Amino acid sequence: IGEDVKPFTPGKAKEIVMSLQQPAVFCNMVGDWPALHWNAKYLSAVLDGKTIQFRLGLKTVDLVPQFETRCSYVKATLEEFLAWSCGQPSCLSGPFSCYEYSKYWAYADYKYIARIFEDKPEIFQDIRWSDFGFPGRSGKESTLWIGSEGANTPCHLDSYGCNLVLQVQGRKRWHLFPPGDTSFLYPTRIPYEESSIFSKVNVANPDLKCFPKFRNATAHVVTLSPGQVLLVPRHWWHYVESIDPITISINSWIELDADHEARVEEAITRMLVCAVKSAENPSDGDLWLNPTEVEATSHEINLQYLNKAVSAYFNCQKASVSEQARPSS
What we know:
Jelly Rolls, alpha+beta, six-stranded antiparallel beta sheet, globular, 6 helices, 14 strands, single chain, eight-stranded antiparallel beta sheet
């Protein structure tokens, strides 16, 4: 095959993404994407002194996951992050001064590209999900993840969609578990975040006394290298860790029809979690709320979410019924 011929047409790639029930790595699909040049130095120049929030965690491995509620947060420029990750003495002052590089990792995760680069919309076109059969999907519908060595996301599953992840700089190790392993992973809704169900197990260092059923879980471990795209199918659990000094990846969640039902479940969960918390002692603060959640919402707002989700679900059901009826009518 010639250098510029991709292994799959957009139509075939989409068919694989929408139907495959196993994780898969696509190779040689993005060789011509300008986003492959988005290394940290380039992004630092593009952001030109703009600050972004970094989550900091300890590199020491504990028996419990380092949930986002137990991390520290700093706002810094990408330039300051790069200087810190290279161990430059200039970091004795500045946002990372309290965090020794040998002891901490930093992660600018879950950054909406549309928000960070709102004044540079031309950059959205550097990401071409149209090659995977999603015309019109670009950086505008994607998120950016920038981490140092050791940066990680606790093991969780996403309630909605399937996930396409492009690795740009450095390597990341993905530990993936099938939906059938859910009970072995001890799912929890605290910390609460809409669309994320966390595991109580630190899958990198499991406490088998507390979580004996984890022995039955089957990890699919993938090391993702620059230029590769990982497909994470719907409801697959994943724990992700950066294994190089600097890692950059870009992802996009692909909506699925099954999301309508998941939205109803999520709306009910939000209502229950908020109700239980409002009945408890309010002095324990928002430690139960994942930092990505803006605030605990009122019962009235939660009912509105539920109402919208149920309406959308029934509209989708009606649409699919009339689709099936059409050929015979």
